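hiii, so i know i said id send this last week but things got crazy w the move. better late than never?? heres the sequnce for the chain we talked about at the cafe, plus the structure i predicted for it. fair warning i was half asleep when i ran it
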Amino acid sequence: MNLPKNHAHMGKIYRATQVATHGMEPRRARIIIVLLAFCTALQMTSYGMIFPLFARKIGDFGDGVEVLATSVMAYSLAGVVAAPFMGSLADRFGRRPLLLGSFAVFTAAFTGYYLAATSLAFIAIRGLAGALTAGLGPATMGIIADIAPEDERARWIGIVSGGTSAGFIIGPVVGGLLYDKWGYGPPFMGAIGMALITFLIAFFIIPETHTREERRRETLYQKRAVRLAPETGTAVSFWTSLPHPLLAFSVLLFINLSMIFAWFFIDPQLPFYVFDELGWSTAQFGSAISFYGWATLIGSLTLSQSSDRWGRKPILIIGLILHSAQYVGLMLTNVYWVIIAAFIIAGLGEALLNPALSAAYLDITPEEHRSQAMGIKGAIGSLGSLLAPALVVAVVGIVPPQSVFLISAALILVTALLVFIALRLPGRAEAARDLTWEVSQERIMAAQSVLHNVTVSASTARKLKRAASF
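okay and structure toks below
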């Protein structure tokens, strides 16, 4: 149908070609996310440089798997307690304070790891670091949710995840080589310096994306909801602030729990296994982690948008199946390059899995509670990293390493089956239809019709007024 071109009685009509939104300008949003990814890469590089040395340092204290597992438990227990509160703080006071605070604590914690003279001091420092850095994940995901378009969330989450992977490409290899040649000093000094640089870069270039005006508007909205809630009905509460449907939220939390549990179940055992039984050097172990990081980085840059295109559920299933390869490889072989190939496949699985998982959380979470939801996600992950080392301490010396790897592989594959059976995520087609309506021919015609009716009504009212005056 052709629209009439002349509307003398209505004035000049302009046809809209785009719809203005209240969000951040897309180019600036992309720059901020890329800078955030760069900061994440630096931070994870600094951590990766000293990560392979934790087992060495605890071994120098005369301790072994049990103490390393206990240090992981201390870190995780602190995260379980602190993460939900940190997420709520990021919603209430903004993302930037939590981000900067976490980067500052990493700098202090790396210094503490280096100076620790006993296993007890090392464990205490890890516990404090777990509590005070628990806001990093919620703040990071909150920034992405604030400024990334909904239909590109997984893509941009993948970019930031790629920064994490880049850190594990460089850090473990460099840290391992420096330790093998010069001992603890150079890798720890390098890690501390990079962590400080990360904080300074974030301080000067990462802005607040959850502005004071937005926080105030959300606070007023929540107060109004509380005031209007019937006294006998369901008032606004913690439960109503959770992502819905709750079954989908529960399944997503279980995915997070199983992934973290599976890794931390082998984490205390893995370095001692590869050093003592496989005879790897620290550099070889760092290289294996680096290959995993390369696979995750390349996958994050090329595959992270898959769930935006094909849906969250199928990508979650595929990602979990691929992610299990690292545990299967460690269980079935002691050949270095076969294990490396398994790590590469697992890294590609993580590149699919993490962006789809985080985007699925954000899809079903109310805007004003995004960081809170990601804090709960972080707490459940910390719970997995708490329970797994506790189980390791209980079974160490009883269960052989291959059985440990088998348990982790089975858990991931069972999780993939659970996702296939139970996960039901609301579709996003409705949102797409709303966007097309914003620029549709029907909207143009509707606007013209409304303007025409207003003009006719005004004209009729004027005629009636003149007739009444005579």
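btw Confidence is low (pLDDT under 50) at residues 429-439. thought thatd interest u
miss u guys!!
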